[in-house]
Amino acid sequence: MMLKVILVSLAISCASAIVCEPDICARVRCAAVTAESCANGNIVQGGGYCGCCDACVQTLAEGSSCLSTILLGVPATATCDDGLICDPATHTCQKPSVLLQGVVKRQISVVPAGTTTALSCAQRVLQMQTASSNGLPLLGQTIPKCAADGSYAPRQCEGSVCYCVDPNGNQIPGYTANIGDSGNMDCQCARDQYAYQQTGLIGRLFTCTNTGSYQRYACTGSVCYCADNLGQMRTGTQTVNIGNIGALQC
User: Does the keyword Transmembrane helix apply (predicted)?
Assistant: First the structure.
């Protein structure tokens, strides 16, 4: 978790610090990049600060750490070799086929036989990583967060806003939060409610917070009780009629 915080902080600070004004190159002094000083890499013309300077970009072999390459908006000093992309899970250079196989193996281990698995999020991440490795910019795009089975994680964030999505990445209306207030945003209630609505059934009451998590209480019909973060009745809790829900001490 701390690593993620550090990465986000670095990305924000670096990206915000690099402001490429129209005449910036006139005020930039570039260090010389020569074949001798870049013996273990490739010289990329205009690959440095704001495109003003040349850059020495190291080529990373399969299995090498590519942690520094994920900082969008920061001049790249290294890139995965041809045919490799940076695995967002392990931050190492891997072949796309290896990453896809890894996702499928994780799916097989958690998804019951006969169930259709979801690879949409994993495929989207691979697509974006492949585009980045081919030199296509990702500025303005957000790499989605994936669950262990390759589907979309319940909470997604873009800029300063976080929201709930279903396993296919479709936003669930009505559940958003500022990124600073999204620490406890698990979207479990929003997802359960959304899935229930897709069945066409009626009668179940969901008590979600504004951020998509379960309230501290839940109701089944006219009977209400204290609930856990999955909406299930807590062991030993009292039950009250829905008209007396204010009497619950949750």
Answer: no
The three-state secondary structure class of 106 is: helix
Tokens of 32: 């010389």
With CA atoms as reference, report the closest residue to 79 among 41, 37, 38, 125: 41
Token pair of 145 as six digits: 């967060």
Instruction: Please state the φ and ψ torsions of residue 10, each to the nearest 5 degrees.
Output: -65, -45
- Dihedral of CA atoms 193, 198, 203, 205 in degrees, nearest 10, equals 10
What 3-state class would DSSP assign to 233?
A: strand
Q: Which two tokens stand for residue 102?
A: 């890894």
Determine contact, residues 180/170, Cβ cutoff 8 Å. Answer: no
Residue with tokens 């974006």: 128
As given in the structure block, the two tokens for residue 18 are 């690099």
pLDDT above 70: residue 5: no
pTM of the model: 0.48
Residue type present at position 170: N
What b/e readout covers 21-42, taking b as 16+ CB neighbours within 10 angstroms? eeeeeeeeeeeebeeeebeebe
> Burial level of 183, CB count in 10 A (0-12/13-18/19+)?
exposed
120-133 vs 96-110: helix crossing angle, rounded to 10: 170
Q: Which two tokens stand for residue 31?
A: 């260090």
pLDDT tens digits, 185-201: 999 999 999 999 989 88
Task: Identify whether the C-beta of residue 225 lies closer than 8 Å to the C-beta of residue 203.
Answer: no
pLDDT of 195 reads: 94
Cα–Cα distance for residue pair 30/26, rounded to 1 Å: 11
